[in-house]
Amino acid sequence: MLKLSDNYLEKSADFAAQGIIVPKYDQTETTSQTEKNPVWVHFGGGNLFRCFHAKIAQDLLNQGNMSSGVIVAETYDNEVIDKIYHNYQNRILRVVMNSDGSLEKELLASVGESIFFNQSNPDGWNKLTEIFTKSSLQFATFSITEKGYALTDVNGNLTALAQSDIENGPEKPKTNMGAVAHLLYSRYKAGKLPIAMVSTDNFSQNGLKLENEILRIANGWLNNGFVDAAFIDYLKNPAKVSFPWTMIDRITPNPAETVANQLKKSGFADTEIVHTDKHTNIAPFGNTEKIHYLVVEDSFPNGRPALEKAGVIMANRDTVNDADQMKVTACLNPLHTALAIFGNLLDYTSIADELADKDLLDLIKNLGYCEDLPVVKDPKIINPKKFIDELINLRLPNKNIPDTPQRIASDTSQKIPIRYGITIQHYIDNPQLDQRSLEFIPLVLAGWCRYLMGIDDKGEEFTLSPDPLLSVLKPNVGNISLGDTNINVHEALKPILSNDSIFGNDLYRIGLANKVEDYFQDFIAGKGAVRATLHDAVQNQSYCF
């Protein structure tokens, strides 16, 4: 059986016999160069990085356009580093799942070092702090999800951890943003060295979010006398520290048993999927789709590798923002979340299977083409309508991609402000549009409130996906029973629908809450009410597609 740790230079023929592409460079040399001259740090060692960023680095290394590897800094789950990166010599088997059922396999050796960067691991903490003092370091990328940036609670107040970070200074912060601010302070003290801090997380204006949260911590330190004003000036000077905006798009589900079985049958040994104590699902391999996009604002004060030669679209901020708004707020992510919500309620375990359901297909068509597309600004580098066409006709129906509504439903409360709130705001801001004309966004929001009950359309309990606000939101609807005609829906939903930190607006103030309440009332009428209400909603709408 062929192993991920086998010498791919000596056994290139064996890898080729299994259809596995191997690196054109020597990993030992790359690791040595990473130690001497670090260039790229990435925060978040999960599946998206392993299937996308690591492949970009591999292409650059193969071309000779980069000589050192990526330093992975995992901030959340030590088992990811110990059981996956270290156990397999920082190597990854990237598997692209084509719609015809075939697999494209490539061994990636572009990770030069992997570190668990957390206060609980002093060696890793000190190691990355030292790396951030190196003048060769050009940029850091992030894929830590929306909640990785959070410093405030549902009411907009600082969390206890954020308050602690601000009160105790740069030496031992516990939040991600505090830890990154600590690293930047170390870089500042090493000579105000320049760097680009590049969020590639899947939400709009991600660079601005990263910048604002870093500054929130740093200004707290300034007010408490831990740092001087010159550090704030350093962070605010794009010639020293930039926070480029990005748009990223690649569906990367958790490693699938079906893929593991195919690899095993082909004679590949390393297929064990690890389920960590912190509920990370990760494996020596990563599986992903073929279609992908990464658009990055070209603002790198310390230089950068030729990222465009590895398929990255380099652009100005306005173009990045237009591409990102197109994708995250309109043409993909809102559709994905709608499928996640109703997929859970209707007992689906496959996104691809949902696309064969006419009601769900019509739902996302109405959502994408009819309500979202009218407020999309064409970014020119990607055609918005063709993007939705490709998503609905090619990407989501790909049965070879084992993506689930349960995975997509994670952290929905953190996604709604971006995936639906921004489109709602566009309707409010445009005098030729009326947000009260929206039907399918309110339907989805009502579906989410119904989802929070944890009861499917058959009346059976299901496990809600992880979400940092579940403990706050679920009690509002958790005691509602299907068919209960005495329930006061307005009283139950008002604490949720009036929360502008979730929706970007108080839905009562802008005239949308009544629609959400009405749909929710229909959804709880009894068993089968979700299906019936959804079917009626899509049947009663005049199609625009």
What share of residues are in beta strands?
5-15%
Mean pLDDT over the residues: 96
Quick one: how many beta strands? 15
Distance, first to last CA: 51 Å
Major pleated sheet: 6 strands, parallel
Number of helices: 23
Helix content: 40-55%
Q: What integer value in Å does the Rg equal?
A: 24 Å
Order of strands across the main sheet: 6-3-2-7-8-9
Instruction: Briefly note the structural class of the backbone.
Output: alpha/beta
Unreliable stretches: none
Shape: globular
Question: What is the gist of this entry?
Answer:
The protein is an alpha/beta fold and 545 residues long.
Tell me about this structure:
- This protein is α/β, with parallel strands linked by helices.
- The chain contains 23 helices and 15 strands.
- The chain has helices at 12-17, 27-36, 47-63, 78-85, 122-131, 160-168, 176-189, 206-223, 229-236, 257-266, 317-331, 333-345, 351-354, 358-372, 384-395, 405-408, 412-429, 440-451, 470-477, 489-497, 500-503, 513-523, 529-539; strands at 20-21, 40-43, 70-74, 92-97, 103-108, 111-116, 139-142, 195-199, 241-242, 246-249, 274-275, 281-282, 285-288, 293-297, 313-315.
- The chain has a 6-stranded parallel beta sheet, with helices on both faces.
- Helix 3 links the parallel strand 2 and strand 3.
- Helix 6 (160-168) crosses helix 8 (206-223), helix 12 (333-345) runs antiparallel to helix 14 (358-372) and helix 12 (333-345) packs across helix 18.
- The radius of gyration is 24 Å and the shape is globular.
- The chain starts with 11 loop residues before the first helix and ends in a 6-residue tail after the last helix.
- The model has no long low-confidence stretch (mean pLDDT 96).
